[in-house]
Amino acid sequence: MNSNESNPQTRNDLTEILGEPISIYTRAQAIADGFLIDVTTTAKEAGFRHHTVVTAALWQVIEIIPARYPFEDVEGRLWDVIWMARQQAGKCKEGVSQFVFELILHRTDKRSQYTQLVCHCGPGDDAEPVLTIGFAEDF
Fold first, then answer.
1. What is the pLDDT of residues 98-124, one digit of tens each?
2. How far apart are CA 94 and CA 18, in angstroms?
3. Contact indicator for 117, 135 with CB cutoff of 8 Å
4. Is 66 within 8 Å of 107 (Cβ atoms)?
């Protein structure tokens, strides 16, 4: 259910201003379609309180482990992403809805490569706060 369906007054106000929507693509649909990957369980272990996803592009990088780093695994790489996001979130001022953070996320067989990621807090399908982590071009 999207936020417009859960709050009839908001839907009426928006429809009055913008007209009927041509189409609606919800966060839940994006998760079901694989465009967003639910990592809430790991995020809660790291201290986040809100539903959390990573983009499909970031998930692909997390899953593909370069041959030079056979000791890495998907769970550990995901933890690194979430943990570093959590560390940076703790440094943000109140009211910040998006921030950039860096971590070493091996993407090729080259040595230490810093990867810049974005963590965005926005409204979910029911206007609840949700987090999305990905590359800048994913937003």
1. 999 999 999 887 777 899 999 999 999
2. 32
3. yes
4. yes
pTM: 0.83
The H or E element spanning position 131 is strand 129-134
Do the beta carbons of residue 50 and residue 126 sit within 8 Å? no
CA 75 to CA 23: how far, in whole Å? 36
Distance CA 15, CA 5 (A): 12
- DSSP string computed for 48-108: --SEEEEEHHHHHHHH---TT-TT--HHHHHHHHHHHHHHHHTTSPTT--EEEEEEE---S
Could you report the per-residue pLDDT of 26-59, keeping only the tens digit for each? 999 999 999 999 999 999 999 999 999 999 999 9
- Ordered by start, the domain boundaries in the chain are 27-138
98-104 β-sheet, strand order: 36-38, 51-55, 129-134, 114-123, 98-104
